Design the sequence.
């Protein structure tokens, strides 16, 4: 009630004094009465990754100071799993709104940021709104619905229970899951996608439940298993391909299930292990053009 009365008073004063003092009064109201900068709280769901990478880091400061800080705020918000969030420009950051617009319109950068979060917190699209005082509101539409997550988790938990043993090393666990996904799924070729054009083939449930998927489905499925098993990872992407980067024995290694599941002319399944936990030198030797990634983003890989 008190806040409502104060709001009405502020509006009345602004109306009485006109445009000349409106901005100053509103800013004073926001900063000193509402104290928004002191009360920004970010809820985090169970899929939040409390990990920092060289390209993006989590932050608890939601007053944007510069471009790098803006990227970290965006990563932290997406990583938290919230669907709506409000943050603010610092008064000294003159190009804040301009830089926010540039980031939100840069689909390539947004896609890269998505690769560092848990697949369940990844977004399909993001919309923004802002005012002239530097208040920025994000609305995040996620890739995976709660129904998707329930179906995938039931499948993943069952596989882990039946196939993963407590005495296995992380490398052994990863190989078991790598082999399972490839043996029980196939790459969704053009002909398969034409037959079922209404199905999305880039989600983990595509390969785990429906049996067919694109590289994004393989990478998401593997990432979900890795998170369940407590193994640090993120997805790594080139212009036309995506795979996993995994930290094993303190080393970052490439893991590409799609390329280890070749398309056979007779429709049979073939399991390969050429791209099973290999370092950057081995990746280069295999000389696959689609593995040319941005080393300024996926710094751990390089």
Sequence:
């Amino acid at each position: 009630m008190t806040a409502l009365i104060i709001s009405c008073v502020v509006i009345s004063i602004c109306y009485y004094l006109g445009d000349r003092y409106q901005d100053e009064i509103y800013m004073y109201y926001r900063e000193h009465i509402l104290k928004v900068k002191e009360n920004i709280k970010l809820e985090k769901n169970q899929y939040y990754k409390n990990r920092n990478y060289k390209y993006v880091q989590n932050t608890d400061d939601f007053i944007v100071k510069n471009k790098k800080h803006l990227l970290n705020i965006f990563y932290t918000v997406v990583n938290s799993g919230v669907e709506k969030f409000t943050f603010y420009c610092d008064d000294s950051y003159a190009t804040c709104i301009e830089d926010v617009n540039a980031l939100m319109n840069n689909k390539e950068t947004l896609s890269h940021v998505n690769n560092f979060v848990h697949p369940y917190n990844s977004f399909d699209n993001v919309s923004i709104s802002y005012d002239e005082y530097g208040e920025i509101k994000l609305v995040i539409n996620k890739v995976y619905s709660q129904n998707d997550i329930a179906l995938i988790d039931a499948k993943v938990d069952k596989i882990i229970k039946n196939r993963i043993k407590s005495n296995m090393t992380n490398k052994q666990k990863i190989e078991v899951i790598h082999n399972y996904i490839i043996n029980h799924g196939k790459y969704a070729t053009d002909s398969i996608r034409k037959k079922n054009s209404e199905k999305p083939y880039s989600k983990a449930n595509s390969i785990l439940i429906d049996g067919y998927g694109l590289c994004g489905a393989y990478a998401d499925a593997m990432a979900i298993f890795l998170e369940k098993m407590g193994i640090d990872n993120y997805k790594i992407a080139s212009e036309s391909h995506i795979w996993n980067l995994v930290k094993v024995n303190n080393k970052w290694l490439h893991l590409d299930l799609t390329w280890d599941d070749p398309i056979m002319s007779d429709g049979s399944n073939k399991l390969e292990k050429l791209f099973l936990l290999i370092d950057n030198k081995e990746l280069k030797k295999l000389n696959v053009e689609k593995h040319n990634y941005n080393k300024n983003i996926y710094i751990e890989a390089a």
Summary: The radius of gyration is 23 Å.
